[in-house]
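Notes to self after the Tuesday call (sharing in case useful).
The group wants a holo model before anyone commits to mutagenesis around the pocket. I volunteered. Ligand is PRP. Logging inputs and output together so the record is complete.
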Amino acid sequence: MSFGDFELTVALPKGRMMADAYQAFAGAGVELPQSAGERDLWHGGDGLAVLELRGSDVPTYVDLGIADIGVVGRDILLEAGRDLYEPVDLGFGACRLSLIRLPEAKTPIRRVASKYPNFTQTWLRRRGMVADVVKLHGNVELAALVGLADAVVDVVQTGRTLKAAGLTEVEVLARSSARLVVNKSALKLKRELLWPLVERLRKAAQKTSG
Ligand code: PRP
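Result:
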């Protein structure tokens, strides 16, 4: 079968959320097709296609309608600013976006490094703060350690990375967990398929959290 033959396409983030996402769908009675191997970019079965994407690409694929539905962290949605329907907090992948500095840092914040530049800029503006935001792609904590930036905005999950680096979580800026996202047009055009699926995922998530 070719990609276009499937009734519904699901976008999932590679990495730590993938197994939980599969489990969330299984809890809702939907066995998503399994990957055939590491190099498998997409796979399909039983009318469903699954795209394995970088988390930050999930909102793009869902917003542009290539995927009908997806799973992605709220942190990524806050950065992406896409207009998606976000009906269910799936509960797993809990983390926070925090402002992080060296413990002794007292100077005004003039430069902030982050994988979340849009989110960071919006937060700074709301606070009435003026600072440059430098986009980085990984190991963001290093920027605060070596003086690339006066502060960083990054994900804190267990806090182990911060502890190991000797950095301080100055303030929690947002809380995040995995969200179900749905393309707004697909929700109308494929309502018979999508609404029951959303409801089942909602109920399964409530059961897990309750
Ligand atoms: C994320 C984040 C922190 C770390 C936080 O990085 O950027 O560095 O996890 O987790 P912790 O509080 O449990 O230590 P990731 O592992 O995704 O790698 P990256 O820095 O290369 O983006």
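Two things stood out.
The chain has two domains: 3-93+177-209, 95-176.
The pocket of PRP is lined by residues 138-141, 154-161 (CB under 6 Å).
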